[in-house]
Amino acid sequence: MAKVLKVAAVTELPPGSMKTFDIEGKLILIANVDGVFYAMDAICSHEEWDLSEGMLEGTHVTCAGHGAVWDLRTGKAEFDEELQPLKTYKTILKDGEVLIELE
Ligand code: FES
């Protein structure tokens, strides 16, 4: 059964911002895209940069390391070599908190 965990208060992540959280030992990036929250593993599968150091534009995050462009909706990257996709998670908004569903 899926495990639902509280991550942050909605006010901690204004629209256009993203942050990495340690959730039970997993580093997960949470991004607020115009009020829609996305969650994806935070560590780039290229050379392990933290994606929260990159740039958020719409539903895409550009890695500060070498410029891979990650799609928060799919966990896939556009890059000049194929990168292992990152896991995405379902987010839930409840009582002013952002929750995510872990399997
Ligand atoms: S570490 Fe992300 S593109 Fe190289």
From TrEMBL:
Domain Rieske span(s) in chain numbering: 5-100
Keyword Iron-sulfur: yes
Keywords: 2Fe-2S, Iron, Iron-sulfur, Metal-binding
Coiled coil: none
Signal peptide annotation: none
PANTHER family with a match to the protein in the record: 3-PHENYLPROPIONATE_CINNAMIC ACID DIOXYGENASE FERREDOXIN SUBUNIT, FERREDOXIN-RELATED
Entry protein name: Rieske domain-containing protein
A molecular function GO annotation: metal ion binding
Record Pfam families: Rieske (PF00355)
